[in-house]
Amino acid sequence: MVEPKDSGQITKGKIDKAITALKDLKPKERDSVSDREAIRKMRRYIEKLTSDKYGYSYDEVSEMLKGLGINLSGGRIKYLLGELKKSSRRQKKTSSSDDNNPSSNPATETQLTVVNTASEQASSEPDKSTVNSAKGKRQSKETVAQQQQPESNL
Questions:
Q1: Integer Cα distance of 46 and 61 in angstroms
Q2: 41-78 pLDDT, tens digit each
Q3: 50 near 58, Cβ under 8 Å?
Q4: Ramachandran class of 101: left when φ > 0, alpha when ψ lies in -120 to 50, beta otherwise
Q5: Residue 43 and residue 57: Cα distance in Å, rounded?
């Protein structure tokens, strides 16, 4: 087993200097990025070239990029663009559904009054929904109730 080297005394001053040095570090610049990231950065230009106005195919764009050392097939470029579109649609849907969420938009007093008044009227009116009768015809519950009352008096 290897014994750890004695790094000397670590003072609070050294720790403070180390923290400052670590905070000041900038992110390293990467030499390479993923296929997805490369397409994300070039997306608007590829979409412009493959539009009806310019008329290039994804394979033609792929050939241009190969000349620059970016080896992606036309199919891969098309797939990655589709994935980027899907993810941006999902983000838009979630943000728009949050806007429509009733719990995030509290109702005003007038809206509550209208809703309460409407529900009170509905509960005071007789139930006029339809019911299937024994003969297979649809009738309102009110009509069925009226037909049953005379029978019970007999």
A1: 7
A2: 999 999 999 999 999 999 999 999 999 999 999 999 99
A3: yes
A4: beta
A5: 14
